[in-house]
Structure formats: C-alpha cells, structure tokens
Amino acid sequence: MKPIVAIVGRPNVGKSTLFNRLSETKKVIVIDQPGATRDRNYADSNWNGKTFIIIDTGGFEPVTSERMLIQMREQTTLAIEEADVIIFMLDGREGLTPADIEITQILRKTKKPVFYTVNKIDNVRQENLTFEFYRLGIDRIYSISSQHGLGVGDLLDDVVEHLPEISVEEPQEERIRIAVIGKPNVGKSSLINKILGYERTIVNSTPGTTRDATDTSFDLNERKYLFIDTAGIRKKSKVSQQLEKYSVIEAIKTLSRCDIALMMIDAQEGVTDQDTKIAGLAYERGVACIIILNKWDLIEKDNSTIGTHVQHVKDSLKYLDFSPIISISALSGQRVTKVFDLINTVYDQYSQRVSTGILNAKLEEFTTKLPPPRYRNRPNKIIYATQISIKPPTFVFFVREPKGMHFSYERYLSNRIHEELGFEHTPLRIVFRKKGEERS
Description:
With 440 residues, the protein is of the alpha/beta class. It has eleven helices and 15 strands. It has helices at 15-23, 67-82, 98-107, 152-161, 188-196, 242-254, 273-284, 305-316, 338-350, 356-369, 407-420; strands at 4-9, 41-47, 50-56, 85-91, 114-119, 142-143, 176-181, 214-220, 223-229, 260-266, 288-294, 325-327, 382-389, 394-399, 429-434.
C-alpha cells in the first residue's frame, strides 16, 4: 500500500488547488466558493522519486449542527485516520481563526506528522502574513501559494521524508472501472455504500450532494473493481449555480474513464427525458451499461409489474437494447449482490476478442442470408472483416465502397454479432473501409 498524505483545513483555504497541483490533474472542482469539495478524493502523486496517495477532503468545521457539514467533518476525520502524513492548510489572507485553533487541538491528539501550511502567500511581501500563525505554538510554519506553486517544493521535500518506506509493488490486476450515473437523488451514493458496507461517500437526500467524482477500490470473489460515484447530471436549464455547472462537466468526464456505467433510474418515476440524455452520453462514449431500476421496494407489484417496467425502459432507451436491466433497492440491499453477476458478464463481453477466422465464417453466413445493398447498381460485397479493438469491441468491414453501406445494414450486422458471437450485452462499433485500406 502506498503511503497516504491527507490535506485538511477549513472550507475554501485552497485544499483542492494544492491537490490538483500535486496530482497533476484537474480532477477536483476548484471554485471560489466554500464547500465545493464534500467527499474525499484520491490521486497518485510523486516527489523526489517517492510515490504516495494524496487525499483531498471537504472543509472541516469543528463545531456545526448542519447535517451536511457534520458529514463533511466525518469524511475529513476518516481521511485523517487513513493518512500517514497530514497537511493542515490555513488561509494567510483571512488570518488565524477560532476554527483553525479548534482544528489544531484535534490534530495535536494524533501521533502522525502534521505540516502546518499557510496558503495564499503569493509573493515575498506577503510572508509577514504567516507570523500570527505561530500563536498556535508550532515550531515550523510552511508558507506556500498552491495556485502558483511557490513554496510547494520545500513543503514536499519535508513531507516525503516522513513517509514510511514501502516495498516494491507487484503489478496489480486491472480493475473493472464502474461509474454510477443518473440524475440527482436516484440513490447512486446509497448503492456504493451498500456495496462497501460503510460510509465511503456522503449519502444525503439533497439533490446534487455528490459533486466530485469519487473513486473507491473494491474486491469481491477474486475480482477487482473500481467504483466511481458521479455527480447527478442536471438539465442545463436547472444548472443555475456555477458550482452545479462544474458538477455536470465532471460527471460527463467520468464516463470517459470507465468501462461500465450503472445507469440508475427511479422506478417510481420511470424513464424521464433527462434519463434518456444521460444514457445517451454513455452510449456515445462506447461505455457498456447496466440499467438499474432503483427504489423497487416502493413499487406496488403484481404479476406483470416487472415486465411492464422493463418494456417501458426498452421503449424509452432503444439504443441501449443490449443493456441488461435489473430492479433493486439500494436502501434495503434487495438484489444488490446480483448486480455483480451482471457486471462480470458485461465486462467479459466488453473486453472479449473473436478470432478473424471465426468472424469471417460468421460473416459469410450473415451476408448469404442478407447480402449488402447494391451501390450504383453494382454489388457491394464485404471482402472480409476483423476486430481491431476492445472496450468497446470494434470491427472493421472491408468493402468495395463504404459510402454504399446503409445504416440499416450496419444495424443488421451489429444485431447478428450481438446474438451469435457472444457480445449480447455490450455496445459495438462497426467501421466500413474501402478494400485495400488495411490499416488498424
């Protein structure tokens, strides 16, 4: 296990800016508004040849009665417990606050190294802003500018010296990357928490509670998974605040780094216009989907209930007709474990390759049954086909004239591959190329 460095502090002191600098990513929402980061976020970092995991946390409010702030404090406390080293960030422009003093008293109880860091010191003339922080009784105060990078190197030089030594890691098996997507308040975080069995992410009934994409590793029955909890994607007309706009962007970006999307739909509401748009984003990116009808325990049922709901989903999401559908209750745990059976099946198909020999033998059957449409009154025969990639499985068909291949025939080939070559539950990509353009 790599060493862990947690960044803690009051809201809006620059924790996420430092996190993004250390991880060399733009994973976390950075905006001049307190509380932009709520859950813990993880990323790899490296300094002076030492690798470690950096954790960004939500703003820590020592004394609060607001439910959301209490949950943010709990998430920060968990990060402190996980960490080997802690960076406590303070705001040089605001000066020392009573909340900073309260947090200092909490950190003094830990046996772990704590680096007291005054942020927003953007030039030498502002160094005098750090003096009052010595009232905390700390021997060393680090002054930095997380935005511009000033002083960050000196801080990291000392941080990595306090990291525990780790043995060389063995290569890790690739994890199945799963994004939980859907509009706000359909139970995405509740599903992940039910799977993990503890409060990994904040669960709250307020729509839009999850703002950053939050990654969590999970192993089950010798298979390795990585869950990505995404912000609820709102209609553009509902994105009234700047922060919500960033949430939409982050959720869309998350689909670009997952293998399977668990598309959660409120069974009581059925498929809405917004659900179709979210599912469409996953389809456009070639992500495999499992459609989850959540809150199934709240549905009044008879012998035809499940069939009616499944048919409604299929009619509404025709482009995802290959995606399996399951009804669950994330709150009670009803059928949640069954989701893993579907994940394994879908992933195996999503990452499957079929030999060129088998593919072309089947192609001959397909074209004999239904020949390609003629182009300019001449046959437009498919010469041969090959699979060029996976995730999603992508097939190239070499033909006399690609422009002559109608969409309906592309659909026909896709359906035959789905049904007869073991790709029943995965999206496919089909490409037509001119005979002789044999490039991968």
